[in-house]
């Protein structure tokens, strides 16, 4: 695999925001996101992804966005004092070839801890594992316990097999000294049968993370057939999977802070005027797409808005 560097790789998107938030995070509190990858550029095409289908499935690691501009924008927003600076965003962050340099740069300018939310698909590469070693918390994903289910749920790049992905998760655990949390995403009827739960349990015990966080569909998924697991059932399965597990609960305390309530109300006000897609809301309010997704999730849970597909896009409108 070729690793390329291109300082102008994303300059066509002049004026793009690479830093977003802080946004309320169920696991990280007030999280300031760092978006290192063009929208839906990923090594997977997960059926449950709330950002939609992957449009550029790749394992090419390069400087997808300009390093210096990312760090400049980050410095400009540090006064907001988030609980975490989180490498995540619109695609798979470990595809950014200068991840390790960026983590080191962040560490040199602030003592705010750094988290990395990754699908874990590239941890079989030694250079990817090395690039994440200085992060304070790394949260990779495990969505399947077998090759067949892995292909069905994650729809990975052809160069990524289930065994290769799993070996990467295990090897990283051996090398990484920070907080290693594993997110397990369950889908009703797909990964919830006893055989699949037992397979995932075996994988988790091979990885030995510090904690397992169990999740399911809570936002409109890429594919309508990706079904959520009821909350009560989710709790039972979490207990079966690993002794140090928890269901990722709704982080109500941080969602109710005034800074988040105000922005959520702005989204609702816009949707009371006219139906909008996530892209429409982001452009209209000057928010990052990932921030909008957070507020949409909240408003859907509160039954204040509803979604409707139209012209192959999902639109939201206020419930009157």
Characteristics of this structure?
alpha/beta, 15 strands, two-stranded parallel sheet, globular, Arc Repressor Mutant, subunit A, 36% helix, 320 residues, nine-stranded mixed sheet, TIM Barrel, disordered N terminus
How would you describe this structure to a colleague?
The chain is α/β, with parallel strands linked by helices. It has two domains: 3-250, Alpha-Beta Barrel (TIM Barrel); 256-320, Arc Repressor Mutant, subunit A (Orthogonal Bundle), CATH 1.10.10. It contains eleven helices and 15 strands. Strands 2, 3, 7, 8, 9, 10, 11, 12 and 13 form a nine-stranded mixed β-sheet that branches. It has a two-stranded parallel ribbon with strand order 1-6. Mean pLDDT is 88; it is low at 1-14.
Mean pLDDT: 88
Rounded Rg: 19 Å
CATH architecture of the largest domain: Alpha-Beta Barrel
Classified by CATH, the class of the largest domain is: Alpha Beta
Residue share in β-strands: 15-25%
Supply the number of structural domains.
2
Tally of strands: 15
Q: Which consecutive residue ranges, at least 5 long each, have pLDDT under 50?
A: 1-14
Order of helices and strands: EEEEEEHEHEHEEHHEHEHEHHHHEE
- How far do the termini sit from each other? 53 Å
Secondary structure topology:
Blueprint: E1 3-4, E2 19-25, E3 29-35, E4 41-42, E5 56-57, E6 61-62, H1 67-77, E7 84-88, H2 99-109, E8 114-117, H3 126-131, E9 137-139, E10 141-142, H4 147-154, H5 162-175, E11 179-185, H6 194-207, E12 211-215, H7 231-241, E13 245-247, H8 252-255, H9 258-273, H10 278-285, H11 289-301, E14 305-310, E15 313-318
Parallel strand pairs: 1-6, 3-7, 4-5, 7-8, 8-9, 9-11, 10-11, 11-12, 12-13
Antiparallel strand pairs: 2-3, 14-15
Helix pairs in contact: 9-11, 10-11
């Amino acid at each position: 695999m070729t690793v390329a560097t291109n300082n102008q790789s994303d300059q066509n998107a002049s004026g793009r925001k690479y830093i977003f938030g802080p946004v309320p995070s169920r696991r990280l509190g007030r999280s300031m996101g760092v978006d290192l990858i063009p929208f839906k550029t990923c090594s997977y095409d997960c059926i449950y992804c709330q950002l939609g289908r992957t449009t550029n499935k790749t394992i090419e690691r390069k400087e997808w966005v300009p390093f210096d501009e990312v760090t400049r924008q980050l410095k400009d927003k540090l006064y907001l004092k988030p609980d975490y600076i989180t490498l995540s965003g619109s695609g798979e962050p470990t595809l950014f070839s200068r991840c390790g340099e960026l983590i080191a740069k962040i560490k040199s300018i602030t003592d705010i801890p750094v988290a990395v939310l990754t699908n874990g698909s590239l941890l079989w590469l030694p250079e990817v594992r090395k690039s994440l070693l200085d992060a304070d918390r790394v949260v990779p994903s495990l969505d399947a316990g077998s090759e067949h289910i892995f292909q069905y749920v994650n729809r990975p790049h052809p160069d990524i097999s289930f065994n290769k992905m799993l070996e990467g998760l295990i090897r990283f655990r051996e090398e990484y000294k920070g907080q290693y949390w594993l997110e397990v995403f369950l889908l009703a009827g797909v990964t919830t049968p006893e055989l699949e739960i037992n397979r995932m349990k075996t994988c988790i015990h091979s990885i030995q993370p510090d904690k397992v966080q169990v999740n399911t569909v809570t936002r409109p998924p890429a594919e309508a057939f990706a079904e959520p697991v009821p909350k009560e059932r989710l709790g039972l399965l979490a207990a079966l999977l690993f002794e140090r597990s928890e269901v990722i609960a709704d982080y109500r305390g941080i969602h109710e802070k005034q800074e988040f309530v105000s922005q959520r109300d702005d989204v609702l006000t816009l949707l009371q005027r006219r139906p909008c897609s996530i892209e429409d809301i982001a452009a209209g309010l000057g928010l990052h797409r990932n921030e909008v997704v957070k507020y949409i999730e909240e408003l859907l849970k509160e039954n204040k808005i509803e979604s409707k597909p139209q012209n192959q896009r999902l639109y939201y409108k206020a419930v009157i």
